[in-house]
Amino acid sequence: MPQDRIRNFSIIAHIDHGKSTLADRILEVTETVSGRDMRAQLLDSMDLERERGITIKAQAVRVQWKGHQLNLIDTPGHVDFTYEVSRSLQACEGALLVVDAAQGIEAQTLANAYLAIENDLEIVPIVNKIDLPQADPDGVAAEVAELVGENAARVVRISAKTGEGVADVLDAIIERVPAPGGDPAAPARALIFDSSYDQYRGVVAFVRVVDGSFTTREPLRAMALGTRFEAEEIGFLSPTLRPTRTISAGEVGYVVTGLKDVARLRVGDTLTAEGRPASEPLPGYKDVKPMVFAGLFPTDSDDYPNLRDALERLKLNDGSLFYEPETSQALGFGFRCGFLGLLHMEIVRERLEREFDLDLLVTAPNVAYRVETPTGQLVEVHNPSEMPLEIERVEEPYIRASVIVPKEYVGAVMELCNDRRGSFDHMEYLSEARVLLVYELPLAEIVLDFYDQLKSRTRGYASFDYDISGFREGALTRVDILIAGEPVDALSLIIHRDGAYARGKALVERLQKEIPRQFFDVPVQAAIGSRVIARETIKAKRKDVLAKCYGGDITRKRKLLEKQKAGKKRMKQVGAVEVPQEAFLAVLNLREGGG
Amino acid sequence: MSGPVRHLYVHLPFCAHRCGYCDFVTLVGRRQGHGAYVDGLLAELELERALLADPVETVFLGGGTPTFTEPAALGRLLRALPPAAEVTVEANPETVTPALAQMLREGGVTRISLGAQSFQPRLLSLLERRAGPADVRAAVHTLRGACFDNISLDLVYGIPGQTPAELARDLVEALALEPEHLSCYELEAKPGTRFTHRYGSELERQAEALEGYFEQVVETLTGAGYRWYETASFCRRAEDAAGRDLRARHNLGYWLGREYLGLGIGAVSTVGGLRWRNAPRLAGYLEALATGETPPREVEELPALVREQERLLLGLRLDRGIELAGVRGALDRGALARLEDGGLARISLEAGSERVELTHRGRFLGGGVAAELIA
Q1: A566: closest chain B residue by CA
Q2: Count: domains in chain B
Q3: How many CA atoms lie within 13 Å of A255's alpha carbon, on the beta-carbon side?
Q4: What DSSP designation does A407 have?
Q5: Could you give the percent of chain A with pLDDT greater than 90?
Q6: Parallel, antiparallel, or unpaired for β A292-298 and A366-367?
Q7: What is the pLDDT of residue A583?
Q8: What is the percentage of chain B residues whose pLDDT exceeds 90?
Q9: Interatomic CA distance for residues A26 and A30, integer angstroms
Q10: Hey, are the CB atoms on A547 and B338 less than 8 Å from each other?
Q11: Which of B26, B88, B182, B208 to mutate to probe the A interface, most A CBs <10 Å?
Q12: What residue spans define the domains of chain A?
């Protein structure tokens, strides 16, 4: 296909604004799939994605329209996957910005639109769901036009559900999105914008060819990591794998690498041909680092090998998942896992529980800290219990948070952000009724329950997105929890010094309620180093007997004791104290119902 | 030829009224049916007689309200039951008349367990008990008049709204009657009863405050010279009672893990490796026995290990604990060592044999301690 007949584009949208429905409709209208074969939301292949209405892994589909080859590159729709979104966008020349005609612009609309603008993409603004009774196509079109600097008349109005206007979208792509540049005669270069793992064929890379061309059986090299392999198969998706001999500059396709280790091929890297290698890789490769960490422990310690196998298998399809073995005195053997963000953590956890049938205890999440010890040593800490007691300085990750709310909730959002050590950056009116607030916040302050709080304080109207903006020094300290004098590693936390006393006190009070009374008094303490900052006592039980027991009661009493005994087995032993697993989650919902 | 079972329980389900907190198998009224029920009991006795030792050691008539049973039928039953060293009948105070007392004496009854429950009219009416405090005192005098020298009083504590002072008064009143034996139970909100429906949440709320009541009962009664020989049972010491062992022998049979035969609807038996419970329905019981069949039963198998576990959990209720030899397989020795360190359990040596028993404090926590000790 000549380059000027190729168009590469993505669809970007806030969650639930109709991205997947539009993608489905495009496949139908272009007769890439017949209506009968159409599985709703075909591009989202994982159950979880369909349920949550988000797309986790990008994929690419080739369709034909009026003598042109259009490549639709799907993007993940959530903040945690910003890096993947930007790699997908880098593979395109244009983006369809889809906005719900009833909802208007939301935080992810903005975040994705800015990403598209940064990548020099031609944006085709689209107002979707114009068939809804509460739709305001004109108002929303004006909002979108303002955002992307377009004339409101050029905003395409559609209903992806009914198919109305979808052909106009395809025409607009051909008219407005530029054909790909790149030099077909230059040494071959292709951007890896996504990858997946096939049990039999190894890593499959999804690529956008920028220069030259790639041919089946050709020896290739990933430039950043230096990985060498042979292209076992080359092809494109339409919508299933279609092998072909060659893909050339401007085209999008896949490469079956045969590599059995996903770590050897990273999204963002550049492929080139060994025979005539390019001298410079494409720009933009970045090693994504997990920012949110949590301990994952099997509820039943016999499940440890199963958890290890499950993580290994997840990692094959999810290169951004990080894990290493962790041993907790209280929780036994498990793994400390690193995630791109909270949603990523939630998805991994659900996949482990659902696809691998594991019963897990997930500790409160924390962020990555950069610590300098008094001896000048620099360490990255992923687990509060590993935080050195002697610290010269600590840095924590910060985010730049965008919150969009109806104007009457501005005060509530500001109060929440201030409570969470946020600093105000700026505020702008998107329309008369809706406001964008931008705050700098420590990531640690949002990992627990920020999003829930935001939703509850704005009655669900707020939309929220964030970007990691870097590391900053903070007056942070480690608080340890001691139960009956024994420090409980799984309950240690790192918090800002100003909040240490209140949080320590709240946590100790919570634990006092969560831990059942024992045969002895059990002190529960919060301490910074050797200094106790809060203390409660779980009073010993004075009575625990089954009142009377005669001939007719024995079976029932025995079963009661067996049940009591089984209940004890689910407890985790901290010294002589039995701690229910739920207590380890106490730290998660400390702020319930308050600020 | 005689069998192995030395303890016989006979269930008499009839009551004048069903108290709100009761979850036993009871039947209200139906006086004209009492004779037929006794026929059923005697038929069941004949079917199972081969299981009984000769002589049996104890007989216990429980209810219901055994003394509410129509007198001719009750008298016939007593005469037909095998004689035993201890024959106990449960009685409600308002049913105790000189004629009844006389009839029980003549029927070979040696011991009366009197359901006093409380001496506070307010609390009695809350429990829907028919007898007042005066009835309890009158019943004890009547029984003494008929020469009963082994009377047990049942007391209940933890009644919704009951204060520690009210409990103290109940204990004083009970002690004033100089009973040989006392059984003191915390009121249980049993699932499905009217009482639980009405007071369940209140009982839950006061659960922590109630912990002190058990201590108050034990301290008061041991202070008055009673032996706290089982979790909920107290008796006068042998040295204060001319050397008589006033522990309830029948109930000791349960706590020592012995075999027992139960007759009547809802009655439970444990013999050999089996435990069975007669179905609670009266008609089905009578129909089966009328045709010479055993009544409908639920049967549970008790493997040797389960029997040992039961012996352990029951034996730990006793002040003298239980011989280690009989419960070795069921005992978690690691847990025992931890509980010994914690001052809750101990091993004692008596007549050359090791016993496992709970300490004074351990006995207050007996349920949790037993759950821990069972391997």
Answers
A1: B371
A2: 2
A3: 36
A4: G
A5: 47
A6: antiparallel
A7: 83
A8: 78
A9: 6
A10: no
A11: B208
A12: 3-176, 189-273, 292-363, 371-463, 477-589
- Residue A9's contacts (CB-CB under 8 Å, 6 or more residues apart) are A70, A71, A72, A73, A92, A93, A94, A95, A96, A124, A173, A177
Q: DSSP code of A571?
A: S
Residue B202 lies in a domain: yes
Per the domain annotation, does B35 fall within a domain?
yes
Q: Which residues of A touch B371 (CB under 8 A)?
A: 561, 564-565, 568
Instruction: Give the CATH number, domain containing residue B365.
Output: 1.10.10.10
| Of the candidate ranges A158-162, A342-346, A433-437, B32-36, the one whose mean pLDDT is the lowest | A342-346
H helices present in chain B, as ranges: 34-48, 71-80, 98-106, 121-126, 133-145, 164-176, 194-205, 207-223, 249-255, 282-290, 304-315, 333-341, 360-364, 366-373
Q: Give the integer Cα–Cα distance in Å for A212 and A272.
A: 9
What pLDDT, in 10s, does the model give residues A506-521? 899 989 988 989 999 9
Strand locations in A46-87 (E): 60-65, 68-73
- The answer to whether B259 contacts chain A (CB < 8 Å) is no
CATH class of the A477-589 domain in this structure? alpha beta
CB contacts, 8 Å: B310 with chain A: 554, 558
Q: Identify whether residues B244 and B309 lie together within a single domain.
A: no
User: What CA–CA distance (Å, rounded) separates A443 from A445?
Assistant: 5
Please say which residue of B214, B236, B254 terminates a domain.
Answer: B254
Residue contact B277–A557, C-beta within 8 A: no
Same domain, B234 and B345: no
Confidence class for position A33, pLDDT limits 50, 70, 90: confident
- Both B210 and B317 in a single domain? no
What backbone phi and psi angles, to 5 degrees, belong to A580?
A: -70, 150
| C-alpha span between A10 and A126 (Å, rounded) | 13
Determine the pLDDT at residue A57.
47
**Residue A520 near chain B (CB below 8 Å):** yes
For residue A148, pLDDT over 60 is answered with yes
Query: Do A292-363 and A371-463 have matching folds?
Result: yes
Q: CB A555 to CB B371 under 8 A? A: no
| Signed CA dihedral, A328, A334, A337, A342: sign only | negative
Check CB contact under 8 Å for B372 and A542.
Answer: no
Q: What is the mean pLDDT of residues A215-244?
A: 91
CATH classification of A3-176, choosing from 3.40.50.300, 1.10.260.40, 3.40.50.1000, 2.60.40.10? 3.40.50.300
Compute how many other C-beta atoms are within 10 angstroms of the C-beta atom of residue B137: 16
Rounded-to-integer distance, Cα B140 and Cα B137, Å: 5
Nearest-10 Cα torsion for A182, A187, A192, A196:
130
Contact (Cβ atoms closer than 8 angstroms) between residue A539 and residue A520: no
The beta-carbon neighbor of A550 closest among B188, B254, B277 is B254
Choosing among 2.40.50.140, 3.90.650.10, 3.30.70.120, 3.30.70.870, the CATH entry for A292-363 is 3.30.70.870
Q: Which two tokens stand for residue A443?
A: 């990531």
Print burial letters for B223-248: b (CB count within 10 Å at least 16), e (below 16). Answer: eeebbbbbbbbbbbeeeebeeeebbb
Structure tokens at A234: 């080359």
DSSP 3-state helix, strand, coil percentages of chain A (rounded to 5)?
Answer: 30, 35, 35
Q: What is the CATH number of domain A189-273?
A: 2.40.30.10
Strands A522-528 and A531-538: antiparallel
Tens of pLDDT, residue by residue over A150-166, are: 899 999 999 999 999 99
- Tokens representing A515 are 């831990």
Structural domain including B361 reads 304-373
Query: pLDDT tens digits, residue range B166-204?
Result: 999 999 999 999 999 999 998 877 777 777 888 878 777
Report d(CA A521, CA B140) in Å as an integer: 44
CA distances from A279 to A45, A77, A209, A267, A347 (A): 37, 34, 16, 19, 39
